[in-house]
Amino acid sequence: MGGLLSSLYETYQSTLAYMALNSLLALSVYTSLSCGQLALGSAGFAALGAYAAALLTLQAHWPFPLALSAGLAVPALLAVPLGLPVLRLRGVFLAIATVGFGEVVRLCLINWEYVNGAQGIVAIPQKTAVWMIYLALGVVLFFLARLRGSKWGFALEAIREDEPAARSMGIPVARYKLSMLVLGAAMAGLAGALEAHFTFMVAPNGFTFGRVVDMLVFAVVGGARLYLGPVVGAAFLTLLPELLRELAPRVGIEAGPLRLMVNGLILLAVILFLPSGLVSLPGRLRAMRAARSPP
Amino acid sequence: MGQQAVNGLFLGSIYALFALGYTLVFGVLDILNLAHAAVFMLASFLALVLVSDLHLHLLLALPCTMVLAGFLGLLLERVAFRPLRSRPDSNIAGLISSLAAATVLEALALEVFGPNVARFPFGTLPAEDPAHPLHLFGAVVSRLQLTIIGVAVILFLSLTFLVKRTRLGREVRAVAESPRAARVLGVNVDRAIAASFFISSALGGAAGVLYGLAFNSISPDMGRSVELKGLSVIIVGGMGSMPGAVLAGFALGLTEVFVVAHLGGSWRDAVSFAGLFLILVLKPHGLLGAVSPREA
Amino acid sequence: MTPLLSLERVHRSFGGVRAVDGAALTVAPAEVHGLIGPNGAGKTSVLNLVSGFLAPNAGRIVLGGRSIQGLGPDRVAALGVARTFQSIRLFPDLSARDNVVVGQHLRRRASLVAQLLALPSARAEKRSARETAAALLERVGLSDRILEPARHLSYGEQRRVEIARALGSAPRLLLLDEPTAGMNPPEVRAVAELIRKVAAEGRAVLLVEHNVRLVMEVCERITVLDFGKVIAEGTPAEVARDRAVIAAYLGSEP
């Protein structure tokens, strides 16, 4: 009986952990989206943070908080030389360049024998507790909430809506975009480091293009206009597969394809009909109800 | 050396075909269609079904698959792209929409065909005759390679004719310049865009079939690596430039083959990204670029 | 008196077209200076050059004794220049009030740390920014509907919000690009009055306009452009008499 309970808790715990980890990762894409930039380097940043922290824990025996800080700092520092040339590119080109960056990181890790190449590093001590991930998420959300209405927050919104107009008001657009990229890199790195010490291992195939696409999907489905959106999207889309796994055998479809199909359909529905994401749903319903009631 | 050149050409022609589809849609709609790789993959499976279950000859299956892929492209345009056209952020929204469509298509493939690698049945391509090997540029070339290069060249020529000499081609080019101006001049913009998607997907489908033949491996995730390389190709060649896509596609094929021969296989994928970064930083318009990659 | 702004033999071409051809122009501090000319004369290009959106191919642009050609728009704005745009460029999803708050970016003083920790100083600063924005909107004659998204406002209202937003940074030079386009006569008079008040505060105004009557009423000096060249410069009376101007332009008064 005890064995059943503890194994139930273990599964439950993992889902909870990933809801928060995915929220952090989705937010790392959101920071750039909030100023209109589609920067998709977060898989690469997460990989850098994960490997840096894992190596420092295993090889240099650093205490966990320091290893986490390194996991945060390394990608943040690398985001600067990446961002300077790449943030001048518009829209799709920026997306492609940052995806390319993520792939380069992954390829380098695959080819680096010191970290076991494609097999990755195993036996990382499990130092991450679920509450730590939520604490990190909470701190990030606190700061993002403070940004709204501040000089910084307004500048980001302005850059997103009309970059030249924002410039004409003295907003140093390049500096803000770079800051958001660095912030996103730090968040992704932290999430990667936390994940590495939760699942005992890191490997290059955990940081593919598909992973950063997932992060983008979380952010878009939840709503990329508000800092709460990515959290809602991540939580929802992390929970969903668990529910679908129960449902799949009853509907006669494999769990893997079903999850993928549902993800795709949800994303399509959101982008076509609810472009500001799930968080905008209450507002939309309210507006529809108001429009329908007699004046 | 000649052998490597032939290998590079044949690999490059597949990349070029695939990239053409990407760049055509981008040139016309300013949208990156990430569902292109899914069409590429599905076409490969469709050809497999036509050849192994319906026993069609490859030379018949290929054009059939291309047409089917074209119709899939039309469906994609209607469902995932047209509703977004009036939006101000239509290119990012379009990218995300195409991502959604790609996911759905991949799920479909996984469900219907399973995750395992499939192969074309033995005898799809006429067997090699070891007593009379074929030659190209002084190197031995297999029937397979010759078929692929040949098909690719025919398709490039057909496309060039279509774009330069037909009315449809002119309309597509007009819409690529400026949809508003084209409409004022009486061009049916919706039809031109739909046609672009049809052609783009047909080319992607052809690339998929040829790729499946070339590597004798068809699976739901075969689009993944080609997708990213295709992006590099169109950036290096210049977004929106069809000759650029062809040129860069061949360049990538040749470079990859040489790199693998001299540096080893694990660095093969790095070639495309190295090229990507160099171009983006040094000459973002790409080699023959038509579209501006920088902010206004 | 040293001019606040001066363009010295400024050239700017696009491809083969000379948009601005050896233009020279000066604006004194707190002066209202008009810039008129037929369509395509290069007026908006001059504004783009002054505000840093374009760099000249040759020549100097001097603001308050400092060369500013080649500086980007945000650096020029930081030196005390603000502008409106010919096609209105408000932030469509932000409210009118929030648009004006963004305009105050250069003047907002809360430090990042204070903002992140939600210290009382930051909250007070946020409140005062909103109050200043509301006050500026009142100055341009808008006090209701300022919390609705800017795209819901009428054309004339949007133009006025843009002016309020430009005033948000307390500029010493205000560039107005056809601010009364599409306005009815009472609105035009209100804008004229506003321009006079702005100048009375010590700010210079460089006004690009097609409404020649407005320009004659409100401006102390006028520069006339045609095909990128300055064809006349002086007081409204002088310009109205100038034969080259009459030939090129004033014959087609709107």
Q: How would you briefly describe this protein structure?
A:
The complex is a heterotrimer of chains A (295), B (296) and C (254). In chain A, 76% of the residues lie in helices and 0% in strands. Chain A has 295 residues and is mainly α.
Query: What is the third-level CATH name, the topology of the domain at 5-80 and 171-252 in chain C?
Result: Rossmann fold
Largest interface: A-B, 44 and 49 residues
In which range does the helix fraction of chain B lie? over 70%
Largest sheet of chain C: 6 strands, mixed
- Do you know the CATH architecture of the domain at 5-80 and 171-252 in chain C? 3-Layer(aba) Sandwich
The biggest sheet of chain B, with number of strands, parallel, antiparallel or mixed sense and barrel status, is: 2 strands, antiparallel
Total number of helices of chain C: 10
Oligomeric status: heterotrimer
Cα shape of chain C = globular
Mean pLDDT of chain C: 89
Radius of gyration of chain B from the CA trace?
A: 19 Å
Global outline of chain B? globular
The count of DSSP E runs of length 2 or more, i.e. the number of strands of chain B, is 2
Distance between the termini of chain B: 45 Å
- CATH homologous superfamily classification of the domain at 5-80 and 171-252 in chain C: P-loop containing nucleotide triphosphate hydrolases
Number of β-strand runs of chain C: 10
Strand content of chain C: 15-25%
| CATH C-level label of the domain at 5-80 and 171-252 in chain C | Alpha Beta
Give the DSSP E fraction of chain B (strand runs of 2 or more residues): under 5%
Overview of this structure, please?
The complex is a heterotrimer of chains A (295), B (296) and C (254). By secondary structure, chain A is mainly α. Chain A has one domain: ABC transporter involved in vitamin B12 uptake, BtuC. Helix content of chain A is 76%, strand content 0%. In chain A, helix 1 crosses helix 10 (228-251) and helix 2 (42-58) crosses helix 8. The longest helix of chain A is centred in the N-terminal third of the chain and has 32 residues, at 2-33. By secondary structure, chain B is mostly helical. Chain B has a domain at 2-115 and 137-220. Chain B is built from eleven helices and two strands; from the N terminus they run ααααββααααααα. A two-stranded antiparallel ribbon of chain B has the order 1-2. In chain B, a hairpin with a 2-residue loop joins strand 1 (134-136) and strand 2. The mean pLDDT of chain B is 85. With 254 residues, chain C is of the alpha/beta class. Chain C has a domain at 5-80 and 171-252: Rossmann fold. Chain C is built from ten helices and ten strands. In chain C, the strands form two sheets. Chain C has a six-stranded mixed sheet, with helices on both faces. In chain C, strands 2-1-4-5 form a four-stranded antiparallel sheet, with helices on one face. In chain C, helix 3 crosses helix 5 and helix 3 packs parallel to helix 6. Chain C is globular, with a radius of gyration of 19 Å. Chains A and B meet through helix 4, helix 9 and helix 11 of A and helix 4, helix 9 and helix 11 of B.
